[in-house]
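in:
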């Protein structure tokens, strides 16, 4: 499978619960907005997933996956309460570990987003058979402090690796 992997080396911006996205999330949004099926791993507040589902007719499904039920309850579940059903129906919120819930259900995704996670966490999430997902694009954002750890372990395994 041919993967386009984007590593956004951006310092983590402070997040607010506003409808506006941070500069970091806007960059990720712009890279993923043309995908039909997206997996947002570590979605927490769901602001990116909500914008993708709200502003794009071509987006059919956004899987919002987080391994912390508390984060989901205090984040995306609160943020989707007042959304219209058209947007809510595009969002699937899953409490689970990384890509495993999607793989177990034999779901296919075009784009995988791993943002706001540490390099070690991202490496462990990607330690699965990515071909099972049918993914054509990965957008990965780690903090600049993790650049060396991530770059050394990830780029040696994947030939299509672009630093933006």
């Amino acid at each position: 499978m041919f993967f386009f992997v984007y590593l956004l080396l951006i310092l983590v911006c402070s997040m607010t619960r506003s409808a506006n996205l941070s500069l970091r999330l806007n960059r990720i949004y712009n890279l993923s907005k043309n995908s039909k099926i997206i997996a947002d791993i570590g979605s927490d507040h769901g602001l990116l997933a909500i914008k993708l589902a709200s502003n794009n007719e071509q987006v059919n499904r956004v899987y919002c996956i987080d391994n912390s039920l508390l984060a989901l309850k205090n984040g995306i579940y609160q943020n989707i309460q007042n959304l219209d059903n058209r947007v809510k129906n595009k969002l699937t919120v899953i409490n689970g570990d990384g890509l495993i819930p999607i793989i177990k259900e034999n779901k296919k995704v075009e784009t995988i987003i791993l943002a706001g996670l540490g390099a070690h966490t991202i490496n462990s999430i990607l330690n699965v058979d990515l071909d099972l997902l049918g993914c054509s694009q990965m957008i990965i954002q780690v903090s600049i402090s993790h650049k060396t750890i991530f770059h050394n372990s990830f780029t040696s395994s994947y030939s299509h690796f672009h630093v933006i």
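note: The beta strands are 4-9, 37-41, 61-66, 91-95, 111-115, 137-142, 161-163.
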